[in-house]
Design brief:
Helix 3 runs antiparallel to helix 4 (about 90-110), helix 3 (about 55-80) packs parallel to helix 5 and helix 5 packs across helix 6 (about 150-160). Strands 1-2 form a two-stranded antiparallel ribbon. The relative contact order is 0.12. With about 180 residues, the chain is mainly alpha-helical. The chain has helices spanning about 10, 30-40, 55-80, 90-110, 125-140, 150-160, 160-165, and strands at about 20, 30. It is built from 7 helices and 2 strands; from the N terminus they run αββαααααα. The chain is globular.
Length: about 180
């Protein structure tokens, strides 16, 4: 976890958050959206962020929705790691509603399509696939699979890609300071 003792996240990103990309020249880029923008500038083809304004808006909104789901998951998990007497059930419930509403919205946005932006892989697809994988990792009791079958099929296709198979996240312990 980026805040656990011994991690360097706070040294590389003033907010202490991941992801962080360090270039060969030691330049640090943080935030998934900015990292994606940088990578898109390096290799604009095939485009993960469309140049057409309305398609670009669509892809970026879906990316933001997926990131928001992940943010709510982080807040839930952190709250659940506080001492039981200090935990807020209302706070956890509010974050869970964000996750539920976000997953439902993603399912509606995808509909019967294979990708979120027409027939091509985009940043929206990558962000959603990562958010769904993160849900599985951090909230294994959140049963989205089976409830949104289009997202389940989408996730299966994305998880079959070598880039996803080779980068499966693992659970890290959250250390608490008493």
């Amino acid at each position: 976890m980026p805040w656990n003792p011994g991690t360097v996240a706070a040294q590389l990103n003033p907010l202490g958050k991941v992801p962080i990309l360090m270039l060969d020249d030691q330049t640090v880029i943080h935030d998934s959206s900015i990292i994606a923008e940088y990578l898109e500038m390096l290799a604009p083809e095939p485009a993960l962020i469309p140049s057409d304004p309305m398609r670009r808006l669509n892809v970026r909104q879906i990316e933001t929705l997926a990131d928001g789901i992940c943010d709510a998951v982080v807040l839930m998990v952190l709250e659940q790691h506080r001492p039981a007497a200090l935990q807020s059930g209302d706070w956890i419930a509010r974050q869970r509603i964000k996750v539920e509403n976000g997953v439902t919205a993603l399912s509606k946005r995808l509909g019967d399509a294979e990708h979120f932006d027409g027939m091509e892989l985009s940043l929206a697809d990558i962000a959603v696939a990562c958010a769904l994988r993160y849900l599985d990792l951090r909230l294994p009791n959140f049963k989205w699979r089976g409830n949104v079958t289009n997202l389940e099929a989408f996730s299966s296709i994305m998880e079959a890609r070598s880039s996803f198979r080779e980068t499966v996240p693992s659970t890290q312990e959250i250390t608490t300071v008493n």
